Automatic annotation (TrEMBL):
<protein>
    <recommendedName>
        <fullName>NADH-quinone oxidoreductase subunit J</fullName>
        <ecNumber>7.1.1.-</ecNumber>
    </recommendedName>
</protein>
<keyword id="KW-0874">Quinone</keyword>
<keyword id="KW-0472">Membrane</keyword>
<feature type="transmembrane region" description="Helical">
    <location>
        <begin position="140"/>
        <end position="162"/>
    </location>
</feature>
<keyword id="KW-0520">NAD</keyword>
<feature type="transmembrane region" description="Helical">
    <location>
        <begin position="6"/>
        <end position="25"/>
    </location>
</feature>
<keyword id="KW-0812">Transmembrane</keyword>
<keyword id="KW-1133">Transmembrane helix</keyword>
<feature type="transmembrane region" description="Helical">
    <location>
        <begin position="30"/>
        <end position="49"/>
    </location>
</feature>
<comment type="similarity">
    <text>Belongs to the complex I subunit 6 family.</text>
</comment>
<feature type="transmembrane region" description="Helical">
    <location>
        <begin position="95"/>
        <end position="115"/>
    </location>
</feature>
<comment type="function">
    <text>NDH-1 shuttles electrons from NADH, via FMN and iron-sulfur (Fe-S) centers, to quinones in the respiratory chain. Couples the redox reaction to proton translocation (for every two electrons transferred, four hydrogen ions are translocated across the cytoplasmic membrane), and thus conserves the redox energy in a proton gradient.</text>
</comment>
<dbReference type="Pfam" id="PF00499">
    <property type="entry name" value="Oxidored_q3"/>
</dbReference>
<dbReference type="InterPro" id="IPR042106">
    <property type="entry name" value="Nuo/plastoQ_OxRdtase_6_NuoJ"/>
</dbReference>
<dbReference type="InterPro" id="IPR001457">
    <property type="entry name" value="NADH_UbQ/plastoQ_OxRdtase_su6"/>
</dbReference>
<keyword id="KW-1003">Cell membrane</keyword>
<feature type="transmembrane region" description="Helical">
    <location>
        <begin position="55"/>
        <end position="74"/>
    </location>
</feature>
Amino acid sequence: MIFSGEFLIFMLLALIAVMGGVLMINLTKVVHMVVALVFTFVSIAGIFVLLSAEFIAAVQILIYSGAVTIIMLFGIMLTRHNDESEPKTGRLRKILLFLGVLGFGVVFYIGVYNVDFPQAANTLHENNTEQIGIALYSKYIIPFELTSVILLVALIGAIVLAKRDDQEEADKE
């Protein structure tokens, strides 16, 4: 069986995504966990590029690899945590985790391998970014704008809560 370049790139990206997820679960330092999560997010964006979903890949990089990761790092820096209080994992847990991930991979591979996609799915990738933009700014403009307002309210709420916590700590001292 001769493997195509696209298949090999997919397998490499899938391996990086799975390894990043497994490392995120098994690492003990929170910053290392976030870096493993970034590897997973970026490899998933690469898989989206292979599927001709460039817009989704760009959103994956911007939102998850960028914004969510930075929010997690800020959360880590702003909270007090004790890394030494976490219990060390045993060898049995690591073996069971590996077997679980391997079993999930086999079941997922068998499920995807046996799926029969219709022929119409082959033409969906043409001008997908343009189609998303037209739909977003014509048919879905109200939900799009409401989402931006909700995010703005959440940002203002987070600032107010952070200021209140700072004032309470200053009053205690």
